[in-house]
Each structure stands twice: as structure tokens, then as C-alpha cells.
């Protein structure tokens, strides 16, 4: 089972726009004067942000190993000096075989000098049917020895592997200067660790109407929303996050989800959504979910609502999650410092077609 540890995000002003930085980053800033360098290294791992709006990227530092494959490297310096250009290891995930390759000195054919390059390749494809195609979401991680965590940012885009394109990767995964600086915790005692996890996006068989998942996995994720009282923003939509084989996001309407001709005052609305491009055409997921608004004052009075419903053709949740009055009442602790914490616990019970 995959364990994801959600860490709180903080709001920092940067260049006329607000961006969210994860707390671990902030720790780096506080504990290491050379923070800029470290910041750079993590930003390097960050997916390019095209959206100028405030983003609510859940950032993962996880205790658990990346769920699929890990390479621990000892005597890294010897390796750097050796003529070995790359090394790799194969593993199985999602019913396919994969090869994880690391270029400790960068892939020079692709301008990767002074960086470490990482690649994921699908292998043993001769056993696959002609015209095979595998869609997958994958993420690379690096082990931080200081904080004892795997660090990686989630890229939720689905990549297509097929016979013309069997390999995907990141040429400039991390620069060697940042990597070699022991303060950053990546290379400690000449040892380092890299991980990769692969989620194959399933396409369910057409013959099936409903497939029940035997032991559903419960996922948990949370977001911090800032500026919720003073805002004039009508809705907050988080980035998609990958859980299991699907991509999820949360929609939060601090003034209620308003429909022309059917306005309801004094409500807040919260919905869960699944990206239906990660589903096979026309299918839906039967999901049991609980949306929780956290009490950050006494920490004991969380408010939650649950439902079991089919997701895939638009968000589902609660238009009238709570009254705006109750939400804003400082006594309840749902909004502290103009921020609120919303978490979701959910499990996929089956696929409906
Ligand atoms: C994995 O990749 C390496 C380097 O490209 C290659 O030498 C090795 O044969 C590959 N392994 C498999 C099982 O294809
Ligand atoms: C580094 O290695 C030494 C000896 O092998 C060991 O005692 C020490 O605990 C290691 N430090 C870390 C941070 O792993
Ligand atoms: C996919 O979701 C979007 C909204 O999230 C919806 O408009 C669209 O109809 C859905 N597609 C299918 C095939 O259900």
C-alpha cells in the first residue's frame, strides 16, 4: 500500500504573485543559510507552473519507499570517477517490466552535463501484442538522508509508451553541485538513493459492467486554502494529484456553488473530482469519500460529510457542505489566520461502465 504523508503548505509572496511552498522547503531556508541553492534544487524538481493563479500543489515528503523501485548507491564518488556512464535495474509494476536508469554524470548525449539524469523504460515488450500501448504516470524521487524522506514532486501527466517511444526521463533531474553538498542530505557518507514509481493507467475490459475491487485502498490527502474570508475568488480548484491509477482534485467554493436562477446564500460548497481522461471511455468510478473541514483551534471538532457515488462525469460532493456563518465563526476553528484545511479520505470501490 502506498503511504502518502501530506505536509502543510505555506503561503509565501514571490514576485507579485503568490506561490505555495511546502514546509520542508521552509525548514531548509531556516536551517541552512545557503537556502537559495537548495531552493533552486527543489524548484528544479518542480513541474513547470504555467498557471499564474495561486496553486495548491500537494507536496509529498514520504516516509514510505516509493512504491515501486529504489536504487541505493554506495561509493558514489568512485562511481563518478569510473568510466561507467549509466547503470540500471529492472523491476515489475502494473503488469509490465520496466528499467530504471541513472546517469550519475548526466546523459551527455542530451546535454545533461553537470546533472544527474534519470530514465524509465518499458522492457520485455516482445511479449506484448502488436500495436501495444501502455499509458502510465510515473514519478522520480531522491532520498533525503537528513530528513529521512523521499523527495519528489508529482507530475500527474499521463505518458504514452509504445514501440516508437519506450523511454521517458528527466535529463536534468538534479544538478551535481546541489546533489554533492552534504547539507542537502542527498549524498551522505557517499551513499544516495533514487526511486521511481509507476502507475499504469488501466483500461477496463468492455465486457465488464461493474468490477468490484477486492481490497480497496484508502487514500488521504489535504490542502490548505489561504485568503478564504477576504477573498473575492469564487472558487478554488486544486491541481490534480495521483492516487492509485487515477488523478483527483478538490473544488472549494467559499461563497457556495451558485447556479443561475437557483442561488443559495450562506453556504460553502466542496466537491471531489476525478480526471476522466485517466478512465477508460464511458466508465466511472464508484467512490466512497469523506470530506473533512479541520478544526485548527481545538483540533477536536472537525466537520465531515461522506458519500458513496459514481465519479467521472463531473465533480461530486456537497453544495451545502456547511453554512458560511458556521464556517466563518472563529469559535469553530475552521478558519484560522484566514486559512482553512480541507482533507479528503476516499476509496475506489469499483469501476462502473
Ligand atoms: C536496462 O537499461 C540498460 C541501460 O540502457 C541496459 O543495458 C539493460 O540491458 C536494460 N535492461 C533490460 C532488462 O532491458
Ligand atoms: C556514515 O558512516 C559511518 C561509518 O560507516 C557511520 O558510523 C555513520 O553513522 C554514517 N553516517 C550516516 C549519516 O549514515
Ligand atoms: C469528463 O469530465 C468533464 C468535466 O469534468 C465533463 O464535462 C465530461 O462530460 C466528462 N466526460 C465524460 C465522457 O463523461
UniProtKB/TrEMBL annotation:
CDD domains reported in the protein's UniProt record: MATH
Q: Give the signal peptide as a residue range, or say none if absent.
A: 1-16
Q: What is the recorded name of this protein? A: MATH domain-containing protein
Q: Which domain of life is it from?
A: Eukaryota
All copies of domain MATH, residue ranges = 66-198, 218-346
- Which Gene3D superfamilies does the annotation name? Apoptosis, Tumor Necrosis Factor Receptor Associated Protein 2, Chain A
Entry-linked Pfam families: MATH_2
Q: Which PANTHER family match?
A: MATH DOMAIN-CONTAINING PROTEIN (PTHR46162:SF9), TRAF-LIKE FAMILY PROTEIN (PTHR46162)
Q: Give the species.
A: Cannabis sativa
Entry keyword annotation includes Signal: yes
Q: Which UniProt keywords apply?
A: Signal
Amino acid at each position: 500500500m502506498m503511504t502518502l504523508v501530506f505536509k502543510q503548505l505555506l503561503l509565501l509572496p514571490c514576485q507579485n504573485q503568490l506561490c505555495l511552498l511546502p514546509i520542508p522547503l521552509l525548514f531548509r531556508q531556516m536551517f541552512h543559510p545557503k537556502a537559495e541553492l537548495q531552493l533552486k534544487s527543489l524548484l528544479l524538481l518542480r513541474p513547470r507552473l504555467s498557471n499564474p493563479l495561486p496553486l495548491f500543489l500537494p507536496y509529498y515528503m514520504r516516509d514510505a519507499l516509493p512504491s515501486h523501485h529504489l536504487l541505493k548507491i554506495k561509493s558514489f564518488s568512485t562511481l563518478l570517477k569510473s568510466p561507467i556512464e549509466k547503470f540500471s535495474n529492472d523491476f515489475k509494476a502494473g503488469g509490465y517490466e520496466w528499467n530504471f536508469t541513472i546517469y550519475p554524470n548526466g546523459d551527455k548525449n542530451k546535454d545533461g552535463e553537470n546533472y544527474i539524469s534519470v530514465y524509465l523504460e518499458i522492457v520485455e515488450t516482445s511479449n506484448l501484442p502488436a500495436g501495444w500501448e501502455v499509458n502510465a504516470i510515473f514519478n522520480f524521487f531522491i532520498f533525503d538522508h537528513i530528513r529521512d524522506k523521499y523527495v519528489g514532486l508529482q507530475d500527474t501527466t499521463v505518458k504514452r509508451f509504445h514501440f516508437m517511444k519506450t523511454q521517458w526521463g528527466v535529463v536534468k533531474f538534479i544538478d551535481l553541485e546541489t546533489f554533492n553538498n552534504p547539507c542537502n542530505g542527498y549524498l551522505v557518507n557517499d551513499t544516495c538513493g533514487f526511486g521511481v514509481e509507476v502507475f499504469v493507467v488501466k483500461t477496463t475490459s468492455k465486457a465488464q459492467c461493474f468490477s468490484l475491487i477486492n481490497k480497496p485502498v484508502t487514500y488521504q490527502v489535504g490542502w490548505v486554502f489561504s485568503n478564504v474570508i477576504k477573498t473575492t475568488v469564487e472558487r478554488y480548484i486544486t491541481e490534480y494529484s495521483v492516487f492509485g491509477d487515477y488523478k483527483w482534485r478538490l473544488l472549494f467554493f467559499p461563497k457556495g456553488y451558485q447556479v443561475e436562477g437557483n442561488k443559495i446564500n450562506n453556504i460553502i460548497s466542496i466537491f471531489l473530482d476525478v480526471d476522466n481522461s485517466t478512465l477508460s471511455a464511458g466508465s466511472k468510478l464508484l467512490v466512497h469519500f469523506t470530506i473533512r473541514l479541520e478544526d485548527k483551534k481545538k483540533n477536536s471538532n472537525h466537520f465531515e460529510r461522506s458519500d458513496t457515488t459514481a465519479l467521472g462525469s463531473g465533480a461530486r460532493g456537497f453544495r451545502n457542505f456547511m453554512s458560511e456563518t458556521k464556517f466563518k465563526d472563529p469559535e469553530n476553528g475552521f478558519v484560522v489566520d484566514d486559512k482553512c484545511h480541507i482533507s479528503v479520505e476516499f476509496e475506489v470501490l469499483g469501476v462502473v461502465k
